[in-house]
Design brief:
44% of the residues lie in helices and 14% in strands. By secondary structure, it is α/β, with parallel strands linked by helices. Strand 2, helix 3 and strand 3 form a beta-alpha-beta unit. InterPro entries: aa-tRNA-synth_Ic (IPR002305), Rossmann-like_a/b/a_fold (IPR014729), S4_RNA-bd_sf (IPR036986), Tyr-tRNA-ligase (IPR002307), Tyr-tRNA-ligase_bac-type (IPR024088), Tyr-tRNA-ligase_bac_1 (IPR024107).
Length: 409
């Protein structure tokens, strides 16, 4: 389909569109007015991760095309838990923990979006502000009558859980009702016409579209992105060492840069389109590079993605650290660092402390495989005590791509 609106042309050209509830209707609307659109994020941790990044970039593209992005934080729905893709009930968080997570997450959004009071400025809202006020009987009367259990059982978020014989609480079963009500509430109070999200949210988004039509006779729209996976089939949110967090206090800028630098050759073009602002003709040139030249494209990807998330100075520092570590054989200042006191630290514990491994057990396996080096010498004993004189440093490496500093204090 050929789109007339700059919004859908932009999303289509860069690979964001998977499904839409009414492509022609949304295209016509976006061609004639500012469209307020939102994506919802639950606050289960103090930082979002790379798996959330395509949804954040959706909001950025919405703003770039002259429309209004709304970040919906799930202060209310976090207390329930989205069952989509889950086998277990979400751990309950305190009100204080959820509020602290939302405040921390906002700092990442401020890198990607321009917030303010203007017609296309981004705003952040919290669904606890309305979900926390509505009574149970009122919710059942106003919203519950528009949902049938038969249809709710047909959605993948419920059906797959039951097929795997994993328990689903009635609390979780209500999640799709609350998410649908969010869309309806935002359309009523803020004129929101579009909800966006990942392909796994399609059923929940359709519920909201239908609820707004049934309760208010309003036409609203839904759009989902394709499931973003790496060339090896793994999910975007994970690396060998765990989640690739967006916040600096959860993951160093150097490790964030390295995640992009170490991507599969086959992913370079796709990631440049989705996660950077580089022009499409430049991206076409970069993804056509072959052999060792593709590494130049990966460095550009790492720089551009890190610049968006962490700032230009962080991207430059990470690139300089990588160049010094890999080309010059030195220790760049931006490498992950662990301070070691006079008592020293065991080799396995050092690997885990630097984020090379998720546990001491994994560190033991890596050391046994001969993958760990201390000052470029292969180590074989995870229990070996490493000491570092105060004021001096030693280099610890896992394979050829992970390096860290042990600093004596």
């Amino acid at each position: 389909m050929t789109y007339n609106s700059s919004l859908l042309r932009l999303l289509d050209e860069r690979g964001y569109i998977h499904q839409m509830t009414d492509a022609e209707g949304l295209d016509a609307l976006a061609s004639k007015q500012v469209v307020p659109g939102y994506v919802g994020f639950d606050a289960t941790a103090s930082s979002l991760h790379v798996g959330n990044l395509v949804s954040i970039m959706l909001l950025r593209r919405l703003q770039q095309a002259g429309h209004k992005p709304i970040v919906l934080m799930g202060g209310g729905t976090t207390r329930i838990g989205d069952p989509t893709g889950k086998d277990e009930v979400r751990k309950m968080l305190s009100n204080e923990a959820i509020e602290a997570n939302i405040a921390s997450i906002r700092t990442a959004f401020e890198r990607f979006l321009t917030f303010g009071d203007g017609p296309t400025d981004a705003v952040m809202v919290n669904n606890h502000d309305w979900l926390g006020q509505i009574g149970y009987i009122e919710m059942l009367q106003k919203v519950g009558t528009h949902f049938t259990v038969n249809r709710m059982l047909s959605f993948d978020s419920v059906k797959l859980r039951l097929e795997r014989e994993q328990p689903m609480t009635f609390l979780e079963f209500n999640y799709m009702i609350l998410q649908g009500y969010d869309f309806r509430h935002l359309s009523e109070t803020m004129g929101v016409r579009l909800q966006m999200g990942g392909s796994d949210q399609w059923g929940n988004i359709v519920n909201g579209v239908e609820l707004a039509r049934r309760m208010d006779s309003k036409e609203v729209f839904g759009l989902t992105t394709p499931l973003i996976t790496k060339a090896d089939g793994s999910k975007m949110g994970k690396s060998v060492s765990g989640a690739v967090w967006l916040n600096e206090d959860a993951l160093s800028s150097y490790d964030y840069w390295q995640f992009w630098r170490n991507c599969d050759d086959r992913d370079v073009g796709k990631f440049l389109r989705l996660f950077t602002d580089l022009p499409l003709d430049e991206i076409a040139r970069l993804e056509a590079l072959e052999g060792g030249a593709i590494n130049d494209a990966k460095v550009i990807l790492a720089n551009e993605a890190t610049k968006l998330c962490r700032g230009e100075e962080a991207a430059k520092a990470a690139e300089a650290t990588a160049a010094e570590t890999f080309a010059g054989g030195g220790l760049g200042e931006d490498l992950p660092t662990v301070e070691v006191n006079a008592e020293g630290i065991r080799l396995g514990a050092a690997c885990t402390a630097l984020g090379f491994t998720a546990s001491n057990g994994e560190a033991k396996r890596k050391i046994g495989e001969g993958a760990v080096k201390l000052d470029d010498a292969t180590m074989d004993d995870p229990g070996q005590l490493i000491t570092v004189p105060a004021g001096e440093t030693r280099k610890l490496s896992l394979g050829k791509k992970k390096h860290g500093i042990l600093k004596g204090v």
